């Protein structure tokens, strides 16, 4: 993020906004997005790929931050959008994304969401399996572009929950099933096959698997379009090393020389676009010294499930003492009722005290996405900061929002007898 220390108070500013001002206006926990950094990162992908390979397209994997404001920023910067179901489709429509820039994914699509995509005239539906294909054969009444998701047979070194390209993946068809699928699509009078798709996994910190992914689609035959998915990893802490966007694009484009020269090349980054533009702001509720020092914040795995799911190593800082050197070794823990609700193990914080604001960087991707109601938690707001001004993109959920989905309890006061 666009981090800078405000010298007079020694506190952190995100996108030019002081954390104490953000906390006062929007409360905590809160997801904060730096719009300038985000747009700069989007342009690295869009301009970079366009310069290296003219006939190409960058799709934002919107599962990484499915918020109307994010769809709108993405579309305004020239990204197309990958949605993985009706819910994301609805948000993309609500943001005004043109249907011909939307691609629909999913390994368990229903009739109704396929119908929604068909009616809207989205750019293409990515077929994952033969049931998808049967549904489409039945539902389409006019020209419908489709792609075929294939198993690349590549399992990059990443956490098991982030590896989706291995041979036993639940996503896509086996190469030996391609011919049958292609035959069925080409013999249907309305279905138009654009090409093939693969996605190898997420948080991949090496460029080699991407080279192999492109080669794997090249081997599948001659098509108009090849989508090689997303997955570029990002730095979560100072010990991490990740390829730059430029290195990644070079790898993909060089490998794409194996593809027909006129073929369209698609990529689907999510995390690498938005992760580093986001931070989460928390307040310290408790500092407890037992065997260890525990700094307990007012959020946890309800607003960042990614940590428990992928063992990702994040960092944390006392944002209100950003100019102070760390002097306290502690575990930053959340408030959910699980020992696994550990946000940062062995963090070094600067004199953490109750009431301090704590910031966790690199939470722009898959944190808001997987927010949940564990222990009655409310989904935090999403705030967009831009050069010193801030705006609410998603408001904080309220207890009324939660109760609105529940039927009122039966009246227990009038008991018989
Ligand atoms: N395309 C497809 C078909 C995908 O399934 C995904 C991510 C992407 C693109 C974008 O991948 P990215 O560039 O963001 O790595 N919950 C996990 C991440 C799951 C990723 C799912 N698919 C986590 O929190 O790490």
UniProtKB/TrEMBL annotation:
Q: Which GO terms describe its biological process?
A: lysine biosynthetic process via diaminopimelate
List cofactor names only.
Answer: pyridoxal 5'-phosphate
The EC class name is lyase
| Enzyme Commission designation | 4.1.1.20
Q: Which organism is it from?
A: Spelaeicoccus albus
Full protein name: Diaminopimelate decarboxylase
Q: Which residues form the Orn/DAP/Arg decarboxylase 2 N-terminal domain?
A: 40-275
Entire protein: shown range? 46 to 462 of 495
Tell me the subunit arrangement.
Homodimer.
- Residues binding pyridoxal 5'-phosphate: 231, 268-271, 366
């Amino acid at each position: 993020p666009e981090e800078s220390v405000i010298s007079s108070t020694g506190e952190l500013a995100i996108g030019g906004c002081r954390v104490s001002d953000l906390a006062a206006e929007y409360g905590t926990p809160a997801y904060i997005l730096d719009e300038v950094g985000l747009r700069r990162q989007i342009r690295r992908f869009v301009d970079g790929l366009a310069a290296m390979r003219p006939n190409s397209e960058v799709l934002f994997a919107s599962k990484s931050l499915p918020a109307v404001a994010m769809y709108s920023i993405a579309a305004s910067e020239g990204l197309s959008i990958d949605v993985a179901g009706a819910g994301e489709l609805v948000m993309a429509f609500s943001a005004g994304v043109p249907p011909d820039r939307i691609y629909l994914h999913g390994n368990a699509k229903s009739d109704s969401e396929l119908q929604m995509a068909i009616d809207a005239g989205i750019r293409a539906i990515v077929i994952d399996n033969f049931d998808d294909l049967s549904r489409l054969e039945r539902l389409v009444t006019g020209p419908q572009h489709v792609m075929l998701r294939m198993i690349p047979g590549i399992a990059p070194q990443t956490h098991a929950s982030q590896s989706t390209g291995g041979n036993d993946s639940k996503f896509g068809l086996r190469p030996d099933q391609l011919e049958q699928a292609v035959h069925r699509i080409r013999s249907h009078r309305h279905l138009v096959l654009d090409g093939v798709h693969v996605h190898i996994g997420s948080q991949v910190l090496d460029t080699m698997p991407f080279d192999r992914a492109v080669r794997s689609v090249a081997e599948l035959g001659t098509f108009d379009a090849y989508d090689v998915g997303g997955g570029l990893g990002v730095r979560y802490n100072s010990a991490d090393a990740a390829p730059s966007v430029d290195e990644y694009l070079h790898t993909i484009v060089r490998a794409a020389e194996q593809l027909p020269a006129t073929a369209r090349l698609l990529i689907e980054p999510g995390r690498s676009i938005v992760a580093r533009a986001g931070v989460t702001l928390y307040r310290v509720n408790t500092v407890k010294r037992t065997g260890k020092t525990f700094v307990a914040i007012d959020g946890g795995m309800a607003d960042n499930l990614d940590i428990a799911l992928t063992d990702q190593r994040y960092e944390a800082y006392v944002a209100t003492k950003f100019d102070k050197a760390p002097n306290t070794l502690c575990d930053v823990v959340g408030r959910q009722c699980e020992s696994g609700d550990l946000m940062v193990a062995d963090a070094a914080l600067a004199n953490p005290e109750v009431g301090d604001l704590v910031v966790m960087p690199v939470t722009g991707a898959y944190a808001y996405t997987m927010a949940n109601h564990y222990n009655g938690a409310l989904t935090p707001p999403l705030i967009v900061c831009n050069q010193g001004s801030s705006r609410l993109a998603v408001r904080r959920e309220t207890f009324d929002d939660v109760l609105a989905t529940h039927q009122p309890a039966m009246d227990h006061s009038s008991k018989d007898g």
